[in-house]
Amino acid sequence: MQLTDLTIHQLHDLLREGKTSAQEVTRAFLDRIAATDERINAFITVCEQEALQQAADADARIKAGDGAPLTGIPLALKDIFVTEGLRTTCASRILDNFVPPYNGTAVAKLKEQGAVILGKLNMDEFAMGSSNENSAFGSVRNPWNPECVPGGSSGGSAACVAARQAVATLGTDTGGSIRQPAAHCGVVGLKPTYGRVSRYGVIAYASSLDQVGPVTRDVEDCALLLGAVAGYDPADSTSVDRPVPDYRTALKEGVKGLRVGLPKEYFIEGLDADVKQAVEQAIETLRELGAEPVEVSLPHTEYAVACYYLIATAEASSNLARYDGVRYGQRVDEGSGLIDMYMRSRAAGFGTEVKRRIMLGTYALSSGYYDAYYLKAQKVRTLIRQDFLDAFNKVDVILTPVAPTPAFRIGEKTADPLQMYLSDIFTIPVNLAGTCGMSLPCGLSQDGLPIGLQLIGQPFGEETLLRTAYAFEQASDWHLKQAPL
Amino acid sequence: MKITRAQVEHVAQLARLALTEPELDALTGDMDAILGYVEKLNELDTDHIVPTAHAVPMENAFRGDAAHASIGTEKALQNAPEDSDGCFLVPKVIE
């Protein structure tokens, strides 16, 4: 077993017992990045010197008996988290030279614990995409098959963990951007309930949907990392003031008598046969462990993608108005006035998909179309949320596939934005409902690509998600499979 | 057609995007297809449905009216493409 194969909790034990050092572990991961990232392209920025310094500090802290669960643990961050003194690009040319003057709350919490930050991870530009092909820094490749996408938008966060380049990472999820890449890369990812984790210092895409979450190698690490970043933050007025449970204590409660809802709208024609089989096998495993599968209905599922692409783009068009070439980011000024400077800077700085979404959102919010598109979508959002609340009157957790297919090939869907959007059909409803969901490995396709199982919980039902996932993980070995890299 | 080329040009102006002719052509097609797809929402009767802006019910959050430390002028300006005398510099607006 190599150091780079270990989990947070395993490394924490070794560090505490003095069997390895944070510097040795950090060096191992930096070497792994150097050996593999030419093929994967998961990192936009690797901060070797800073990471080794943080590791030395962590070793001193552990020696002094002051170690926290994440002290000396090498992590990496999606390049959407602003990091003081460390370039943060959001995978966009417009922020190519942006060095933030502060740390976001989630990052500050990791640093307080003495975690080692290895670098910043590739993603779809401004988190807009399902394949990581929309990055100004090139596509990320799937460690299981470099011809395939890793999923998106947190593709770098998922590929990095699958390639053993960091122990765990943070991503963000607006319509599936943690869960779908986690599924495609065979790792664990969790999107917490809206408001569970502060969004302060997370570059905004769609503010009513964005949420920060962990990408990890196993469910216990997921519980640990979620606990480390969750909690109320006065700097994010939408974070919820509610105690953070010790997510790890909930893990071992088992699933006996747990009612697991199977929404019939998610088991439809067009679902890949391998995905269907793997998910059905997972249901059988949970049944053997004492869970009780129950059919439920989420009748407005088929409207979720349309609803999402109006709400998310509308919010994006407003959020991305801040990139104007004045306070930060790229400026293109040809001397023909302020408005022209705005228009040229934005046109030169944004990629195709970002422009497409800004345009769609601007149109949906524009005079004469607001009621027909944006307001209509907000009303449909109410129906979608109500579907989930109704289902949770009958069941404790909902189980579905994460994506209709395993990872698709690079280039396969770039010509047709609508086809790309539809690949998020099973993850988008959770963001619209504002509740929590997670992805964990549940199989491999005949082509050797990972398949993800999605568990959806009630608002603030992360403990139920984690204990269900943990019970499944204990009864299977999919999380131990390694990408052939 | 859900959207015309002229409307797309107008939206680009609203969005402050100097798009090229090929970009405007491509976006007209893309937006038309996507707007055609979202028409699907009109199958639903939502006359009496309250819109959801945020999924978690929340009230206005107020903080105390007290001064806080902030990052300061120097840090605030460190990423500015152009600055002068502690201010962000923009192209001339008033002739």
Explained architecture:
The complex is a heterodimer of chains A (485) and B (95). By secondary structure, chain A is of the alpha/beta class. Chain A has helices at residues 8-16, 22-40, 48-63, 105-112, 155-162, 179-185, 219-229, 273-288, 304-319, 338-349, 352-365, 371-391, 417-422, 428-433, 462-474, and strands at residues 43-46, 74-78, 116-121, 168-173, 188-191, 211-216, 259-263, 292-296, 397-401, 436-444, 450-457. In chain A, helix 4 links the parallel strand 2 (74-78) and strand 3 (116-121). In chain A, helix 5 packs parallel to helix 6 (179-185), helix 9 packs across helix 11 and helix 9 crosses helix 12 (371-391). The longest helix of chain A is centred in the last third of the chain and has 21 residues, at 371-391. The two termini of chain A are 16 Å apart. With 95 residues, chain B is mainly alpha-helical. In chain B, 36% of the residues lie in helices and 4% in strands. Chain B is built from three helices and two strands. Chain B has helices at residues 5-14, 21-38, 72-77, and strands at 83-84, 87-88. The two termini of chain B are 42 Å apart.
